[in-house]
Amino acid sequence: MNHKRTDVTVVGLAAALAVMSQQSAFANSEIAEKLAAGVWRSLVLGGTNEYDFPLTALGQARFQSYRLDQDSSLRCEPPGMPRAFYNLSPMAFSFEGDTVTIFYETMDVVRTVRLDGVPLPENAAHTPNGHAIGRWEGDMLVVDTTHLSAGETTRDGVPKGELMTLRETFSVEDRGERPHLIVTMTITDPENFREPFTTVNEFALEPEWELLPFDCHPTEYQR
Fold first, then answer.
1. What is the C-alpha separation between 169 and 84, in angstroms, rounded?
2. Is 28-221 CATH 3.90.330.10?
3. What is the average pLDDT across 143-158?
4. Alpha helical stretches, state H, the chain
């Protein structure tokens, strides 16, 4: 009898956790619907911002020694995070189950954000976009990214180390004729950055837009 009670308890607990996880994933369906309502266009003219990154001595040395002809995008390789975001290209969101997919038009970057809260082991492989876990805090989507592979934070070679982590917040504000998306990103990279670095960027919703294929051709860059 005791074993049966234990089995029932475990099954009940697992079911309850599954329900809680599902509720967490859809904790704010209204904001999710707004995020997925179209394409978000950067309010920065030309899609490029200038940032004063607080580089360590090592980070500065890496930045100064970076050769622009080493840029992987010249080979049409999609840049990883956070560079994919710092292009400030048009982007779009899709919600399905416990997953958020973020699409960036530049270089056809696709990110997957898990809302189930399951972290990766510390020794898991590092990838250009890393492992992103999202959660809702009120009307704000918060995304923490770990397991990023080394590379560049920006096109001009600001370095990115494997210890880098990202925290992003996405919030929608209704302003006049169209909603605005406020994206706050904090980069922590003890190897290359003296301190965490935070940027805030704004995007306007274009409900009639669609993301276009980037259609990159390496030969065009290598001439």
1. 16
2. no
3. 95
4. 2-25, 29-35, 57-65, 83-86, 218-221
